[in-house]
Amino acid sequence: MTGMIISGHANFATGFLSALNLLAGDVNAAAVDFTSGQSEDDLRENMKNALDSMSGCSRIFILCDLIGGSPFKCASALSIGREDVRVIYGINLGMAIELSMCDLDSAELDIDSLADSMKDTAIENVGVFRLPEASGAGPEDEGI
Questions:
Q1: Where do the structural domains in the chain lie, given as residue ranges?
Q2: How far apart are CA 41 and CA 105, in angstroms?
Q3: Which of 115, 111, 122 has its CA nearest to residue 65?
Q4: Per-residue pLDDT at 88
Q5: Closest Cα partner for 47 from 59, 39, 36?
Q6: In what side-by-side order are the strands of the sheet with 85-89?
Q7: The dihedral of CA 15, 16, 22, 27: what is its sign?
Q8: Which of 2, 11, 10, 20 is nearest to 92 (CA)?
Q9: How much is the pLDDT for 133?
Q10: pLDDT value for 107
Q11: pLDDT recorded at residue 46
């Protein structure tokens, strides 16, 4: 089984997990927020508790809002020496939805291949919407 821990600044993690549950149903995930007034020690303890709650998982992904922040640094430190844990930063809902369903079709993927696949999915889910340029055709050109 695959577990997810979502962490980020302010209430990023709980909001993200709420959206993920709405879109993908109840997922095997925990949220660890890093709110104003918390220390890095508080964050570390909360993240360690979340990791402990995933003890039945064969692979655990800690998904962080961005590289270099306290949640990322804490997750990275806790992952050292853990072959069953990978940290992914710069997350989006598209990759989290895919990760939440990975036990259905990616059980044979090793943790590093799955992490790389999630990175690719996250990149594919970022883009810029632009309206196509007008062709100059008016309603009379469309048979109206």
A1: 2-121
A2: 37
A3: 122
A4: 97
A5: 39
A6: 29-34, 2-9, 59-64, 85-89
A7: negative
A8: 20
A9: 86
A10: 59
A11: 98
Give the pair of three-digit tokens for residue 64: 């962080």
- pLDDT, position 137: 58
Contact 55, 79 (CB under 8 A): no
32-49 burial: b if 16+ Cβ within 10 Å, else e:
bbbeeeeeeeebbebbee
CATH number attached to the domain at 2-121 = 3.40.50.510
Position 23: which residue type?
L
Residue 22 has what pLDDT? Answer: 97
pLDDT beneath 50, residues of the chain: none
pLDDT score recorded for residue 42: 98
Non-local (6+) Cβ contacts of 102 within 8 A are 2, 109, 114
